[in-house]
Design goal:
This protein is α/β, with parallel strands linked by helices. It has a single domain, classed as Glutaredoxin, CATH 3.40.30. The protein contains six helices and six strands. The relative contact order is 0.21.
Length: about 160
């Protein structure tokens, strides 16, 4: 019986990693997600990307590695800035790189307002990563050159 439960748990875990989909949300919902406060002792990592953005795709393996190496105090959220027609491309990349977390595809009505509402330090290019800790926020605009660079941002004590 224990073997059956173990096999079922393994299958469901593997299936959930491969069944990631992007929930389509509007600009207001996306803004609300980005303005959340981190729970005490938790770190929220929000990555803005698109399936047509080569630097975005190149850094996806670093996020997969971070997810594998970081403990449960890290929550990962990915917001695709693709249009609705590219939803399947975004989902394919999520599955291909085995990116876990919450996945959204944001339909923006006013890009400039959205960028300003997310963080005034964001100049508008992607990839863009926002790290929210209990008492601070940090941003990284542009792609990460390595997993070590991403890891360094995520583990900084004072942002």
């Amino acid at each position: 019986m224990k073997i059956v439960i173990l096999l079922l748990t393994t299958f469901l875990t593997a299936f959930s990693a491969w069944s990631q989909t992007c929930q389509v949300i509007n600009q207001d919902s996306a803004t609300i997600i980005t303005q959340q406060k981190a729970d005490t002792g938790k770190t929220t990592v929000i990555n803005f990307w698109a399936s047509w953005c080569k630097p975005c795709i190149e850094e996806l393996p670093y996020f997969a590695q971070a997810q594998a190496n970081m403990d449960s105090t890290y929550q990962f959220i990915f917001i695709s800035l693709d249009n609705k027609k590219a939803k399947k491309s975004a989902e394919w990349l999520i599955k291909h790189y085995q990116i876990k977390g919450n996945h959204y595809l944001a339909t923006l009505s006013n890009t400039n307002t959205f960028i300003e509402n997310v963080d005034s330090r964001w100049q508008g290019s992607i990839p863009f990563t926002l790290v929210i800790k209990t008492k601070s926020k940090s941003v990284h605009e542009g792609s990460f050159d390595s997993y070590e660079q991403l890891h360094s941002l995520l583990t900084q004590e004072k942002l």
